[in-house]
Give the backbone structure.
Amino acid sequence: MNSSAAENSLDFAQNITIQGVGLIGGSIAAALKILNFPGTIYGVGRNPERLQEAHDRGLIDEATTDIKEAAAKSDLIIVCTPVDQIVDNVREAADAAQPGTLITDGGSVKGSICGPLAEGLPDGVCFIGSHPLAGSEKQGFEHAQANLFDDRVCVVTPVENTPPDQLKRVIRLWEMLDMQVIEMDAETHDIALAQTSHLPHLVASVLCGGLADADRKLAATGFRDTTRIASGDPGLWQAIFLGNQEGLLRKLDDFQTLLQQYRTAIENQDAATLQNLLENAKRNRDGLSS
């Protein structure tokens, strides 16, 4: 992230509100600080003590528990709350926002957010969904990193009537955080993320949920690497699973079909089929960029 080159390019906002100063929201704030963002960064949350600590750490300039207070002073609002709260949070912020304000989010689900917000916002206030594909199983601004988004992908999900100038603004935001921006519709996003994010978390959770106490001492590197993401916040993930119900169920059906192929091959001592399945899995894994 080149802070000196970016100073003259921070034209996507004058003042920014971040609602939900956790890992993602805190990392956005940290990145903006590295970029020497010249405006005010308002942090909004439910816990005044936590917000004060985020302020003391230099992540935000002002802290408040009142989203309307911050929204009225900002022309860019980034909502980083749990996915089942984002729609209500956006509507509340939009009611206090000035015309020309852009609102985006960081949610891992898009259809259940972008659909309800495609209409009904005040005139001149625009919502465009975003999903920065970055993070970890850790929580809280204590784990915020200014470089969390470097060279990662961010999906933005405009709708048919999204104003082009506002789309350029949200793309500019994520590009200034060194992200590679991809545009797609919300449904396509949700089906893809069911495969690449939501289903893996579900499988990791199933593996951990079925771990017998007597086997814990035998859960070595392979098990721990495979299930690391199961340490994520259960409350956040149940909301993601339910928010992407259609996409996740579709990919869960696909997973069960493939799992049955493995089971059948093992049951029938079918070494050739099992070898093919494993080789295909290895090719896909080896083909992932680092």
Notes: The beta strands are 16-19, 41-44, 62-64, 76-79, 102-105, 126-132, 153-157, 180-183. The first strand starts at residue 16 and ends at 19. The chain has twelve helices and eight strands. Residues 1-6 have pLDDT under 50 and may be disordered.
